[in-house]
Amino acid sequence: MSRRRVLGGAATGALGVAATAASLPIADAAPARRRQSTPSGTYRIDLHAHFLPPDYRAALLEHGHITIGGYPTPDWSPEQAIAFMDYYGIQAQALSISDPGVSFLGGQEAIDMARYCNTHAAQLFRDHPTRFGAFAVLPMPDIAASISEAFFALDELRLDGVVLLSAYNGVYLGDPRFEPLMVALNQRNAYVFLHPAAIPAGAKPELPLPDFLQEFTFDTTRAATLMMATGMTQRYPNIRFQLAHAGGTLPFLSHRVSVASQTVLGQLWPQDLPRPSILDTQRQIGRFYYDTALSGSAAAMASVLAVTGRDHVVFGSDWPFSALTLPQTGSHDPAPGLSDFFDADQRLEVERLNPLRQLPRLAEAVGA
Fold first, then answer.
1. What is the dihedral of CA 246, 358, 356, 325, to 10 degrees?
2. Helices 278-287, 215-229: crossing angle, 10 deg rounding
3. Which of the residues 102, 104, 148, 152 could staple to 110 if both were Cys, CB 3.0 to 4.6 A apart?
4. Average of pLDDT values for 289-311?
C-alpha cells in the first residue's frame, strides 16, 4: 500500500476536532471543576478557517494534492461556509489558504495564484461584509514578489493580515532569507497567522498517520523556536504572530527551549545572534497569540495559559478540514470540551473579544 493511500485512509478514520477557547490570567489557569455554561447566539469570530477558491482547488488536484496534511482536499464554497457558521454560532471567519499555500507552483504562476486567492477573498467580504475577513497568501519563497503582494493585499484589498507557513522548501521562518519580508510586515504592524507546513516525506519517519495529527504541531514549534533563537521576534515587535493549534508543542516545551542561557550553549552562542535569556524567551513566548483549532481541551488550554494570558488566546475552527469530526450536538457548540475549563464569560472573551481586538477592519464590519 502506498504512503498516500495509508495517510488518506488514516485521515478519513481519525480526523481532528476544531476548537475554540478562552482563558484565565496565568495565575488562575486551572481547569474548571465542573462543566461551565456556554454563551448563546452567533457571536464567535474564527481566526483559523480556510477557503479553497475554485481555481486554487483545481490547481491543487492537478498537481497531485489530493490530501492536505493527510486530510482529503475538501470542497469549499461561501454558501457552505455560511451554513457552517450559522450552525456553530460563528459570526465571521478570517479566511486563509492552508498548506501548501501557492508554493507548489513556481514563478509567475505562484504570483498569479496568490493574487487570485487574495482578490477572491476581498470580494467575499465585500459581498458578505459581516461574515468574512481574510489573511493574504503570499507567493513564497519569492521574497520580492511576496513583499509586493503583501503591500497590495493589506493596502489596496484591505485584507486583515497575512498567512505564512512554518517553512518553505525546508527553510523555516526565522532564517535570515526572510528578513526583508519581516521588515515590510513590521512596518505595516501586520497580524500574521503562522500555519504549519507538511514536512517532505524524506525528512520525517514513515508512520501510518496523517501529518495533521502530530507533525503539524511539531513544525509550528520548530518555526516559532527558530524565530526566537535568531532574534526575529525581538527585531520586529510590531508583528503579531498567531500560532496555529495552541502553538503546537511550544507551551509544553517553553522551559526546555529557554534553558540554553543556563548551559554552555549560552556561552558558545554565535556572536551574530542575540544571546538567549530565559526571561526574554519566556516573554517572547508570551507575546505569541495561540488559536484553539484542534485544541479544545482543558489539557491544551492549561498549557497555553501557563505561558501567556487569556488576552492572547483566540478562537479557531480549522474548517473545512475539521468538517467530518465537529460535534453534531443539540447545543451547536463547535468545541464543547472548552467548557470543562472556561466559563461563559471567559469563552466570550476568547471566542469574540480577543479576535476582534486584533482585526480592526473586521471589528468595524461586524459592528463591534
1. -20
2. 120
3. 102
4. 94
